[in-house]
Amino acid sequence: MIASEQVRILLVEDDEVDVMAVKRAFRKLNIDNPLTVACDGIEALQILRGEDEGTSLSRPLIIILDWNMPRMNGAEFLQALRSDAELRNIVVFVMTTSNDERDRLAAYERNVSGYIVKSNDESEFTDIIAMLQEFWCRVQLP
Amino acid sequence: MSSASNSRAPSGRVPRMSSEPGLSEITILLISPKNSLRDQFRDFLHRPEIGVFRVVWAEDIESASSALERQNCQILLLDIDDSKDLSRMKGLLKKHADVPLIVLTSLVEPFWHQILLREGAQDFLVLGQFDAALLSRSLSYTLERHAALRDLRESEGRFRSMVERNADGIVIVDRDQRVQFMNPAAESLLGFRASELIGHVFEVPLTKNLSQSQTEVTLTHKNGGPVPAEFRFVAIEWEGERAYMLSLRDVSERREMEEAHGRLVAILEETSDFVAIADLKGRFLWVNRAGRLLVGLKPGEPANKYLLKDVVPATTFRLLENEGLPSAREKGIWQQEAAVLYKGIKEIPVSMQIQAHKSIDGVVKYYSTVSRDISERRAAADKLENQTRILRSILDSMGDGVIVADEQGTFLHWNPEAEHLVGAGPKASMPSRWMADYGLLKPDTGKPFPFDEMPLYRAILGEASDQVEMLSRRADGEELILSATGRALKDKAGSLKGGVVVFRDITEAKLASEQLTHYSKALEHKNQELQDFAYVASHDLKAPLRAISQISQWLAEDLGEDLPEESARLLELLHSRVHRMQGLLDDLLRYARAGHQDVPVETVDTALLVNEIADLMGLLPQFKIRTDDSLPVFDTGRGPLEQVLRNLLGNAAKHHDQEQGELSVSCSKVKNEGIEFFNFIVEDDGPGIPPEFHSRVFKMFQTLKPRDTVDGSGMGLALVQKIIHSCGGSIELQSDGRGTRISFTWPVQWNPEA
User: Residue B75 pairs with which residues in a beta bridge?
Assistant: First the structure.
């Protein structure tokens, strides 16, 4: 597999434990796709626009987005992303603890590819990450 | 008919002899071919005992006729012996009817003499049997008789002309009632010409009794119409026969007048007004039925027994004497309220009218009076006055201000409260001045209140207005907020008679209401805050919990075999408590949200719903689920109802203490305060709930068992109750010994605002 063709993952998540959970799941599943972490919407946008010196992300790319975050939450981030001509077509999955219908509808209105409620159960969470891996490996991304 | 009767035909001719001639001037025409007879007569007629006559002579009847045309003769002497000459004698008499004739004959038979007299001779003398004295007597007699006959004829002529010109219809009938004669008045009365009726029987009753007096008959006109006529008759002699002269007077006009009079009298008789006619002395001439009843007149008793002063009280009589009668005499009529006496005792108030009736020359002949009983009207007026007084006292004691105005805007009534609230009494001002005169302002802007928006002004225009708020700035400086309601006043026929406004001081109520609005807004705000808090808190609490849970798992994973058994158990405990807290937070979140969601309305088959819930919750096959036909299919908020049923069924299953159980759901329709509800009943055959805990089960975080025995947040029933209350229903629990029965009502019409 050529490195440049490997799907990059941008995880937008403010909770360190949740970041750890993803990383542990990657490790468990032997996923070696490059994982970038942004602590909120603002930082994520900076990374995506190459405004952050240290990091730059090339396509193919998917975003795993937490919903409730400080500074710029998931809804606001999606709003900004979808209004940006360069970024509007990026595939986004929302992964959140919120089971609120209003949140779910708000996310899909902003064209997310999936709205996933985080499970407390370790193995169930690993299954979710496995499903996502399956997705990015098989689906042709923009 | 004899020729003699013809000669007596009525005529208007003037007799030829205008004055009675003396005998000496009498000319006799002697008609005889015999010279001897002529000589004999000349001798006779020159005798002094007979008188002086002039005699002319004619040989026969023909020459006599021409002689008569030449000169006046007063008497004819005709010598006739032969019956053959009779017809010529008749011809002569016919031609010269006004000249009497004496026959000279030589025949002595009485038979012949009778013939002669019958045929028109006045007398006869037998030749050779009369002397000068007899001749003289005969001549005198003949002349006398002739004069008498002439007089009679003239009188007949006058009679006839009188009859002809009579305005009454005159019909002469013979003894068989055949018409002999009709005058023009009779012709026009009956429409027949005389010639059409002569000889026909004229059908009228001719009895002796009737001849005494006149009677009325109804004759038939030629055109078939009735002709009322006054009829009388007298027996007369007509052309020598017994006959009857009928006199007919057309009374149709008079009868019409009589009928009209009768009708008027009948009307006056039947009217309930007291009608009477009195002479100038006040004595009654006529009183109608109502009047007779009033006065107490017995049937048949004459009205003139009473005087005006007998039937009115003294006060009225004085009024009449001093004012009524003089005024009627002067102006013709007088009218005023007065009184009459019923049977001389009881005073009855009347509207009395007196009229003076004058003759053509202006002299008052008598009075008439029409008096109408107004005691009922009086009583009604008294009653009305009473009611008005009551209404007024009600108005005056009312706590609301009431102002009444007529359709012009002129004030009819202000009650004391109105004066108090407005701070002034009624002023004579136009509606357009009201706001200025009474300091009425718009409560929101403080600007003058436009008069055309004022409830009272709108009311007098026929429009209703409700609870219009006005600011009253009274003269004493105090400001009140008034709430005014205006209504039009209409009479029975529905036409506008003005308007009424009722108003009250709502200053305090308004303040209280504003306060209430303020509180309720604040409350709403707090509620929202609480909800937000519950949402955020539960969400934000969940994240660290999850982290704790995960970290504890990772610890166990990473340490693996190295983890002491005791530590592993502690980690497990930690994990389970985290799990319980997550359940609590989920329920708290649901509770906070209950009743605050826009729920889509769907058609729900409740029996199917119950079975789906049982299936999804894995209640089968441990529990038998019983549903029946009573469970409705209806449009409602599916989510909330599902939540309620799921909680109730879940509770029943969770707390069941046996291997097998039965859960049943049924429904009936009930009505509460006019709103229809379904009353659902969820029953189980579990252990039941002791009565002392019934009041606690609906409270938050209440569980009746240790958490470790039955997993539950203790919020299930609180959530159910909140959902049910938020849609207007109620919930009840019954449990006595084993089994729990929970009934809840759910609106038939889904109304999320309830």
Answer: B28
CA B697, CA B742: separation in Å to the nearest integer? 11
A interface toward B at CB cutoff 8 Å?
A: 15, 17-18, 20-21, 24, 68, 97-98, 100, 118, 120, 122, 125
Report the first-to-last Cα separation within chain A, whole angstroms: 18
* pLDDT at residue B560 tops 70: yes
Residues of chain B neighbouring A122 (CB-CB closer than 8 A): 550, 553-554, 557
CB contact under 8 A, A17 and B539: no
Per-residue pLDDT of B273-314, as tens digits, reads 888 888 888 888 888 888 888 777 777 788 888 888 888 888
Average pLDDT for B163-191: 86
Q: Which of B250, B280, B309 is the last residue of a domain?
A: B250
Verify whether the Cβ–Cβ distance A24 to B553 is below 8 Å.
no
**CB hemisphere CA count around A67 (13 angstroms):** 27
> Where in the sequence is the domain holding B290, given as residue range(s)?
255-373
Nearest to A97 among B542, B553, B557 (CB): B542
The number of domains in chain A is 1
* Mean per-residue pLDDT, B678-690: 91
In a domain, B753, yes or no: no
Look up the pTM and report it. 0.37
CB B33 within 8 A of CB B59: yes
Identify the residue among A13, A14, A16, A17 best suited for mutation to test binding to B, counting B beta carbons within 10 A and taking the highest.
A17
Q: Which of B478, B505, B532 is the last residue of a domain?
A: B505
Average pLDDT over residues B102-108: 87
| Cβ burial, residue A124 (10 Å; 0-12/13-18/19+) | exposed
Q: What is the DSSP string of B467-493?
A: EEEEEEE-TTS-EEEEEEEEEEEE-TT
